[in-house]
Amino acid sequence: MSVTAASVGYAMATLLPPSVATLLTQVIIFMVMLFSPVSYPADRLPTWLATAHEFLPVEPMAQLIRAGLAPDQFAVPGRSLVVLGIWCAASILGAVAALRRKA
């Protein structure tokens, strides 16, 4: 999970200009805190946003943390691990491509 989060951040930092990357990270923090199913269930979100969160790494990361802290009460669906793996691989490939282009 931490590799995915770090690689997504690193990919943004290498692919975007510094001012855009800073703005994007602030927007992402705002969106995660207010509009993601981390603090409340996804069924409280509008249908389109709940569907979008099935493909974003935020909810799977939260599920992984919950399962790590309270494994008796929470489980990590296999789909969440696949989503995190895809995000991790894509962001590492994006960062590597950007670094090769800059070099």
Characteristic key phrases:
globular, single chain, 5 helices, 74% helix, mainly alpha, 103 residues
Write the layout of secondary structure elements.
Layout: H1 2-15, H2 18-35, H3 47-53, H4 58-69, H5 78-102
Report the structural category. Answer: mainly alpha
Total number of helices: 5
Oligomer: single chain
Low-pLDDT sequence parts: none
Radius of gyration: 15 Å
Whole-number count of domains: 1
* Topology order in helix (H) and strand (E) letters: HHHHH
Mass-distribution shape: globular
Biggest β-sheet strands, sense, barrel: none
Characterise the protein shown here.
This protein is mostly helical. The chain has one domain (2-102). The chain is 74% helix and 0% strand. Helix 1 (2-15) runs antiparallel to helix 2 (18-35) and helix 4 packs across helix 5. The mean pLDDT is 87.
Describe the structure in brief.
This protein has 103 residues and is an all-alpha fold. 74% of the residues lie in helices and 0% in strands.
